[in-house]
């Protein structure tokens, strides 16, 4: 699969536009379905480790693309999203989505860009016996392409990408005034340890300058 | 009766088709996506979500698009 420089630059820009994953669809020309000419986002809810498209926004995206005289194979077959860190390998959530949403298409591609720059690209097809394979990715500088537009891309990010905070694992919610540990699954365990005469521990004296940076 | 139908399954489709008159949305979905589970799709007519028993009309624009497109670094 190839990106033209415009699409690649936009994907890279949006990958780093906020502290969250992002996702969208690759737009290709009618003549070359493996040449991504644009990367388009839809409204989505994201965190540092996840991205979820708004269902109505996906429907609107389909309608708008058809109105722009594109066929579904040009705008709805290449699903792109980003990962934090350096690992672009798909998670089980990614695999479930790819199978459920794109598994009935004649073909589809799952592309993942890690923030560190690593990529993952897998083509899945249902023709003949069906199958899937990782395919190479390149940026094709020999194609014609538009100039980058950071202002417009930033506006698109602001318009479509909602970044949600991560939910604390043990639900020690910041709103809680009394820091009640009832919902901490280890709270009782810690309490039992502290009451156990056989459990010894020392409290080291705390120096004020240990808090300073 | 002629309607515009848009969906992404199979080869993908965005074109006018002929269907029988007074067809409810549920029957249309079952005909076009026999393998599909309705809860996995957003079904809209003329850009509005509809109930399964809504009757399709001449010139309607029916869009069946995937729901719950999500990715995550952890499962």
Show the helix and strand layout:
The complex is a heterodimer of chains A (213) and B (75).
Chain A: E1 2-3, H1 5-15, E2 23-28, E3 35-40, E4 44-47, E5 50-53, H2 55-67, H3 72-75, E6 78-83, H4 92-102, E7 107-114, E8 119-125, E9 131-134, E10 138-139, H5 150-160, E11 161-163, H6 187-195
Parallel strand pairs in A: 1-3, 1-10, 4-11, 6-7
Antiparallel strand pairs in A: 2-3, 2-6, 4-5, 7-8, 8-9
Chain B: E1 2-7, E2 13-18, H1 25-32, E3 41-45, E4 48-49, E5 61-66, E6 70-72
> Count of DSSP helices of chain B?
1
- From the spread of the alpha carbons, the general shape of chain A counts as globular
On the 0-100 scale, what is the average pLDDT of chain A?
Answer: 85
- Give the proportion of residues in helices of chain B: 10-25%
How many strands appear in the DSSP assignment of chain A?
Answer: 11
End-to-end gap of chain B: 46 Å
Note poorly predicted spans of chain A: 203-213
The CATH homologous superfamily of chain A is termed Cytidine Deaminase, domain 2
Determine Rg of chain A (CA atoms, Å).
23 Å
